[in-house]
Design a protein that fits this description.
Elements: H1 2-8, E1 14-15, H2 20-24, H3 33-43, E2 47-51, H4 61-72, E3 84-87, H5 96-103, E4 109-110, H6 113-117, H7 123-139, H8 143-147, H9 151-159
Parallel strand pairs: 1-2, 2-3, 3-4
Length: 160
């Protein structure tokens, strides 16, 4: 289905890991994201869900970061074919520093519904706080220090 969609659409295609939990929790099945993700990349996805740090599911952070690193690796040396890792699952600005430093890059998508919509100052403040947290992470500025400059981030840190 993804191959057919890719042939007929110029829109970005998101590869979600629906069902990944049942495939990966049983060691006897032998599923590993490093082997699974190239299938979706070859089919034509543009970004691929990798879970998130301190997520609401069962994967530890080192497994999530390994998954994200795997999709950023080219499949062939002579023809780079990487996709964007998508972090989600209970993400807030609190994970920004660890995500950037653990991945070694800010080449990612962070989806954070609750991290934005749950902000006590409303959605606009939630978006501002997330942007401020990620800007601080990319600049290597501690969150508490960045919050001294931004009321939205300060309020979010108390809430998160």
């Amino acid at each position: 289905g993804v191959v057919a969609l890719r042939r007929h659409s110029a829109l970005p295609i998101h590869g979600h890991r629906a069902g990944w939990g049942y495939l990966s929790r049983c060691p006897q099945l032998g599923w590993d994201f490093a082997a699974w993700q190239p299938i979706w990349r070859l089919a034509g996805v543009d970004h691929l869900h990798v879970n998130g740090l301190r997520n609401k599911f069962s994967e530890p952070d080192d497994v999530v970061l390994a998954a994200a690193r795997s999709v950023l690796q080219p499949l062939w040396a002579d023809r780079p074919m990487t996709v964007m890792p998508v972090f989600s699952s209970a993400q807030t600005g609190l994970q920004a520093h660890d995500t950037v430093s653990g991945l070694g890059s800010a080449d990612l998508i962070c989806t954070a519904g609750g991290g934005i919509f749950g902000h006590p100052g409303g959605v606009t403040a939630g978006v501002a706080a997330m942007r401020q947290a990620w800007s601080a992470a990319r600049a290597g500025v501690p969150l508490a220090q960045a919050a001294e400059q931004h009321a939205e981030l300060q309020q979010a840190l108390r809430f998160w």
